Amino acid sequence: MPHPNDPSLRSFIPVDATSHFPIQNLPYGVFSAKDGLAPRVGVAIGDYVLDLWQLAQDCRFDVVEPAVFAAPQLNPFMALGPKVWSNTRARISELLRQDHPELRDNESLRKRALVPMADVKLHMPFAVSGYTDFYSSREHATNVGVMFRGKDNALQPNWLHMPIGYNGRASTVVVSGTPVRRPRGQLKPPSAEVPSFGPCKRLDFELEMGVIVGQPSVMGEMLTEKQAEEMIFGFVILNDWSARDIQQWEYVPLGPFQAKVFATSISPWLVTREALEPFRLHGPAQDPKPLPYLQQVQPNNYDMALEVGLRATQMNAPQNISRTNFKYMYWSSVQQLVHHASSGCAMNVGDLLGSGTISGPEKDQRGSLLEISWNGTEPVELAAGVKRTFLEDGDSLVMRGWCQGDGYRVGFGEVEGTILAAE
């Protein structure tokens, strides 16, 4: 049987070369349709969702019970482990191949199992057990450091020795399309003598990737590079919404808190680690050399194009304000997971790890408005004379990402959020 990543594979379902969902991808999500059935697990293929519960009911899978795909979240499937993940993806690929008649020529099953994307509602794809956000782009950390501490003290002494992170809130991770209400908090600009409480005035985004942990680790035990890699089920695009003025006042001495916990948006489709395998590469050289437990042998970064579009309230369509690549990340997702567990911290199925803001070396590759507008001193020029330093009520932010193959793309769709006024 051909490997699901084979570039020559084609589906009997027509898929445009620019689609994010060719047969080489097969990302997982949770959807509901007009049939009135409860949310369940599906796979994106072109402009359709393949209903895995319908296929399981029809006995098309040998190793997965129908109840696993009837669940309103991917956690039960992820818990089955990497061997089941790989075998299931291979079976789905086989069923969708243009030269395989099993589903292609079964009109009744095809009508039940293939649902037009336009007719579905996408839900949170998994239950988030815990959420940790990292700070792993050297370019982003340097830009922020220069802004607030100057060029000579841009990176803190520990930054080049370990992935820096903090524990966020799983309760406010939401799926694409969920509106985001402007947060309130304590504010104290440099000109004020005492703090006040009110709506955030410097609302920002952060372009990140999210890693979904699909297997648990044991409390008290460390992970090797290989173990950490095999625990990763897949990736989503992640928007770490950030209230910069709240953050500025609260972050000393323990780091971000209310400035980050009000909302984190993710894309609805989980692209599997296996689907991204052809796009792996080595990340930037790490100097000084990390301690032995963080050293890598495998190429754990990905050649993944990312872009951010901003639609101001006065605009009809988003305008791109950033184009960057996941390959620039100094600390890889595997290193983040290894470090997270290094103290003996137990990881759980459904844990979400944010990569940290993804910025590249060029000005148009910055992954936050804080950097793009250089802390509000260089407004972003948009269509129709609109300018932005930070996000205003009614603004919509759209992030997209994909890996470019030979005649196909392995993509994530998009993650979108619109800003609502503070209550």
Description of the molecule:
By secondary structure, the protein is an alpha+beta fold. Helix content is 20%, strand content 26%. The radius of gyration is 22 Å and the shape is globular. The N and C termini lie far apart (56 Å). The model has no long low-confidence stretch (mean pLDDT 97). It is an enzyme of class 3 (hydrolase). Residues 24-125 form the Fumarylacetoacetase N-terminal domain. Its EC number is 3.7.1.2. GO terms for molecular function: fumarylacetoacetase activity.
Notable traits:
423 residues; alpha+beta; eight-stranded mixed beta sheet; five-stranded antiparallel beta sheet; 26% strand
Write the layout of secondary structure elements.
Layout: E1 28-32, E2 40-45, E3 48-51, H1 52-57, H2 66-70, H3 75-78, H4 82-96, H5 101-104, H6 107-113, E4 114-116, E5 121-123, E6 131-134, H7 138-149, E7 165-167, E8 173-175, E9 180-181, E10 184-187, E11 196-199, E12 203-204, E13 207-213, H8 225-231, E14 232-239, E15 242-243, H9 244-250, H10 258-261, E16 264-266, E17 271-272, E18 280-281, E19 301-302, E20 305-311, E21 319-325, H11 333-341, E22 352-354, H12 369-372, E23 380-381, E24 387-388, E25 396-404, E26 409-420
Parallel strand pairs: 6-22, 8-16, 9-26
Antiparallel strand pairs: 1-2, 1-5, 2-3, 3-4, 6-7, 10-11, 12-15, 13-14, 13-22, 14-16, 14-17, 18-19, 20-21, 20-25, 23-24, 25-26
Pathway: Amino-acid degradation; L-phenylalanine degradation; acetoacetate and fumarate from L-phenylalanine: step 6/6
Cofactor: Mg(2+); Ca(2+)
Domain Fumarylacetoacetase N-terminal: 24-125
